[in-house]
């Protein structure tokens, strides 16, 4: 595989050419490329990977000629059988299949070689008019953006497999409307929520407080085992994610990226809550399971089983807590993660640290998601500077 090295505003793609028959290394081939303006960090990464594939194919002198007769529908059928199962998580593939159901009636009949940017732009415009089957409202922009991401991924794989010499869906999507800020609880709401949680059983109190305090994802919190808790330095090793897809078995898997395998930290008060819950779990395990609790047990475990609880259980319970206590019902469990990030940013924590605690691969991802929160910090800092200097 070609390597990619950043050089200022451009990138150097280097392709190793192997060794000759005497065992001497052949001279590597190099090419400098500059990504199109306006791409997000993730889009830039995908664009560079595609350029690396094309350049390596060119250097090796064995490009696979695109199949000029295959349709998008036929390729997606191949992709679902041969590519996706080895590449995507079960939950991701389930979501992609939902998008494919929307894609095929509009674009499935086109040959891959016939697809043009205008086809995708018209498709996204049509999607914005399509109704959501659950609530009868037009599809959200978030859904349309997800469909575009699905198409880009499929066509990138088609290009890598030699069916295309470029990705025709690139840069065909433009966000329509104003991006909504993440659903975040302000400090007053957080205090009311904490008071409400303290009226719940210790299991639910601990789960939601852990996410508020650490910014873990729902599935990451469900995947915690007692051995992941270090009371000496008040740290938690986040190294598993629990996923449950409808009609599928529960899946416990490692984090998607290396950055997802991380340590987060908790307060002395949280340590006390953890110890209290462990005492309760120890008693229940001995009483109902006829065995001792071990460090290998999940903290949030199904009673009588060795499996963790599913994230949806906590999602449903959280909605009940909000409703019962008159708290904003627009919030959800993931809002607690966003709330943690916003509180860190408001406290002046730098973007690299916030990214590390949240498990983001790149600080740019954190900046992109929480740009509004960093902007508020910048405005506050600017105002303070002006007042201090009497400008």
What does this structure look like?
The strands form 3 sheets. This protein has a 3-stranded antiparallel beta sheet with strand order 1-2-3, with helices on one face. The protein has 14 helices and 8 strands. The protein folds into 3 domains: 3-60, no CATH class; 72-160, DNA polymerase, domain 1; 193-380, Orthogonal Bundle (hpI Integrase, Chain A), CATH 1.10.443.10. It starts with a strand and ends with a helix. The chain has helices at residues 41-60, 72-87, 90-107, 117-129, 141-160, 187-197, 202-214, 218-222, 268-288, 311-324, 333-346, 351-358, 363-369, 371-389; strands at residues 3-7, 10-15, 29-33, 229-230, 235-238, 241-243, 251-253, 262-265. With 391 residues, it is mainly α. 51% of the residues lie in helices and 8% in strands.
Short note summarizing the structure:
The chain has 14 helices and eight strands.
Described by the principal axes of the CA atoms, the overall outline is globular
Tally of extended strands? 8
The averaged pLDDT comes out at: 86
Largest sheet: 3 strands, antiparallel
The level of helicity is: 40-55%
Gyration radius (Cα, Å) is 25 Å
Task: Please give a handful of descriptors for the protein shown.
single chain; 391 residues; mainly alpha; DNA polymerase, domain 1; hpI Integrase, Chain A; 3 domains; 3-stranded antiparallel β-sheet; 8 strands; 51% helix; globular; disordered C terminus
Write the layout of secondary structure elements.
Blueprint: E1 3-7, E2 10-15, E3 29-33, H1 41-60, H2 72-87, H3 90-107, H4 117-129, H5 141-160, H6 187-197, H7 202-214, H8 218-222, E4 229-230, E5 235-238, E6 241-243, E7 251-253, E8 262-265, H9 268-288, H10 311-324, H11 333-346, H12 351-358, H13 363-369, H14 371-389
Helix pairs in contact: 2-3, 3-4, 3-5, 7-9, 7-11, 12-13
């Amino acid at each position: 595989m070609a390597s990619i090295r950043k050089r200022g505003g451009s990138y150097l793609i280097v392709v190793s050419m192997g060794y000759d028959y005497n065992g001497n290394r052949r001279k590597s081939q190099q090419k400098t490329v500059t990504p199109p303006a306006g791409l997000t960090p993730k889009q830039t990464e995908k664009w560079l990977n595609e350029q690396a594939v094309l350049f390596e194919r060119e250097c090796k002198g064995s490009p696979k000629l695109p199949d000029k007769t295959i349709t998008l529908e036929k390729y997606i059928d191949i992709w679902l059988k041969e590519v996706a199962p080895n590449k995507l998580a079960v939950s991701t593939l389930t979501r992609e299949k939902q998008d494919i159901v929307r894609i095929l009636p509009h674009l499935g009949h086109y040959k891959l070689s016939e697809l043009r940017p205008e086809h995708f732009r018209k498709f996204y415009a049509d999607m914005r008019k399509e109704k959501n089957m659950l609530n009868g409202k037009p599809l959200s922009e978030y859904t349309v953006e997800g469909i575009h991401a699905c198409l880009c991924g499929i066509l990138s794989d088609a290009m890598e497999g030699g069916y295309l010499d470029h990705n025709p869906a690139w840069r065909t999507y433009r966000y329509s409307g104003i991006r909504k800020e993440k659903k975040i609880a302000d400090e007053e709401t957080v205090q009311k929520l904490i008071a409400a949680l303290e009226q719940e059983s210790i299991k639910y109190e601990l789960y939601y407080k852990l996410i508020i305090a650490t910014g873990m994802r729902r599935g990451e919190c469900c995947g915690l085992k007692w051995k992941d808790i270090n009371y000496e330095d008040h740290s938690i090793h986040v190294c598993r994610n629990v996923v449950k897809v409808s009609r599928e078995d529960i899946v416990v898997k490692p984090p998607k990226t290396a950055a997802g395998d991380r340590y987060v930290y908790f307060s002395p008060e949280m340590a006390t809550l953890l110890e209290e819950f462990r005492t309760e779990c120890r008693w229940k395990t001995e009483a109902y399971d006829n065995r001792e609790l071990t460090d290998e047990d999940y903290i949030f475990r199904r009673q009588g089983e060795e499996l963790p609880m599913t994230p949806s259980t906590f999602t449903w319970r959280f909605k009940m807590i909000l409703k019962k206590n008159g708290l904003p019902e627009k919030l959800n469990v993931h809002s607690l993660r966003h709330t943690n990030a916003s509180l860190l940013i408001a406290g002046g924590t730098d973007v690299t640290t916030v990214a590390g605690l949240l498990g983001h691969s790149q600080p740019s991802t954190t900046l992109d998601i929480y740009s509004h929160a960093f902007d508020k910090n910048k405005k506050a800092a600017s105002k303070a500077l002006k007042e201090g200097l009497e400008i």
